[in-house]
Design goal:
The chain is an all-alpha fold. About 80% of the residues lie in helices and about 0% in strands.
Amino acid sequence: MKTRLGTFGHQVPAIVQSAVGSAVAWIVAVQLLGHAHPLFAPISVMICVGVGLGNRLRRVAELVVGVTLGVGIGDLLVSWIGSGPWQMALVIALAMAVAGLLNSGELFVTQVGSSAVLVAMLVPGEDVGGLDRMADALTGGVVGLIAVALLPASPVAIAGRHLSQLLDALSTVLERAADAIDQRDADLAAEALEKGRTTQSLVEEFTAALVNSKEITMISPLRRHHRARLVRYETAALPVDLALRNARVLARRTLAALGEPGPPPRALAESMREVSEAALLLQLELNAGREPMLARQALLAVAARERPTNLGFSANVTLAQLRSIAVDLLQATGMDHDEATAALTPLTENQRRRPS
């Protein structure tokens, strides 16, 4: 219930934007444009605003063009063949086929089909032309953009929430892998691997959240001062993605290492925990709007420490992945790759040599 309430809280701005914008768009279309039933105006607002989606400007353009195309095809066919179930099926098929050939975007094709349905079945015989419906769609799209501009969600909160989920997941994978080494428990290593395998969807959601957040700062003058903070999230995006990929490999090799004659040393588990804590520190500093200097110092301390020697093959790979994660997170704090790599303690000759 707490999770659902938290998710709902993040959707409240979009719900308010959709509700208020739909009412305003209807009033504008009725009072200013003189349309008796401007169905496409509130529909356009809801599609434009969405719930946590980006690319609003493109969606408005696709919406207007999609409505125009759907209405045009629908009006033309209905005037020839009339209305009815089979006529509706034919109208939808032809309208969506034409849309698919012109643009493979899901919104565009769906909007063309739904517009054709409304023309063919819901509003037959009304004295409303395609230009009127296009005007309604454009009105709703513009009002939707204004609603986003004047009732904006916090772009920093959107990006920060999704990045926090990524860094929490990374920390969890490292903590469980460390526990697996300490307890010599392959089941915990398997849990770490399973957790790591579920993170790709979080990466994709964070990428979409960044697009959404940047768009809000572009549309809304009330949120433009957040651009500098969003730059830090953009800087962290790719390195954190790479860190999660490396964490999946780390968990897999930890599981393999626990089945080898010489299991990983507990000192490796301690280093994992320190990197895990640095990831959480990075999360806190970015969400607080600070330069992540404390996280960088913690990672540099881990990177400078002497590494265990005489490891088995899988433990060596685990160590290499942990070093890669440290470099990734250092880049997430704003360091460049060469500087972050140079901070690592050089590997000994035994660590460079692959076991036979």
